[in-house]
Design goal:
With 106 residues, the protein is an alpha/beta fold. It has helices at 2-10, 26-33, 48-56, 69-78, 88-97; strands spanning 17-19, 38-42, 60-64, 82-84. The N and C termini lie far apart (32 Å). 25% of the residues are buried.
Length: 106
């Protein structure tokens, strides 16, 4: 949060995202208070309910880490807007097979 406060002071026009455990609503409160447009919610401690609550606050949601087909399925089921992965080639292949991406999107 301290880095986001500094960015907000020096460059308030820059979009900000808050990375946290998101295991309770206090993380959403912090993201909102800091003027973030994005919540980065981890698979390990987040949930579909937290993603929905973030969306209700107008936040775009990045789910992470989507490193396996199971991880990707879960994040997609949660309704995240984007996914962070350590294995982009595998994730793109998975999403293409699911007809979620075309070759033009990759």
């Amino acid at each position: 949060p301290a880095a986001l406060v500094a960015i907000c002071r020096t460059a308030p026009e820059l979009p900000r995202g808050y990375i946290g455990t998101y295991n309770d609503e206090s993380f959403l409160d912090t993201a909102t208070r800091l003027g973030c447009s994005q919540a980065d919610i981890p698979l390990a401690t987040g949930s579909a309910a937290m993603v929905a609550a973030a969306h209700d606050r107008g936040l775009r949601v990045t789910g992470w880490l989507g490193n396996s087909p199971s991880d990707l399925e879960t994040l997609l089921a949660w309704g995240v807007d984007q996914i962070t992965t350590d294995t982009p080639t595998h994730a793109l292949s998975f999403l293409t097979r699911r007809s979620m991406l075309t070759s033009a999107d990759a």
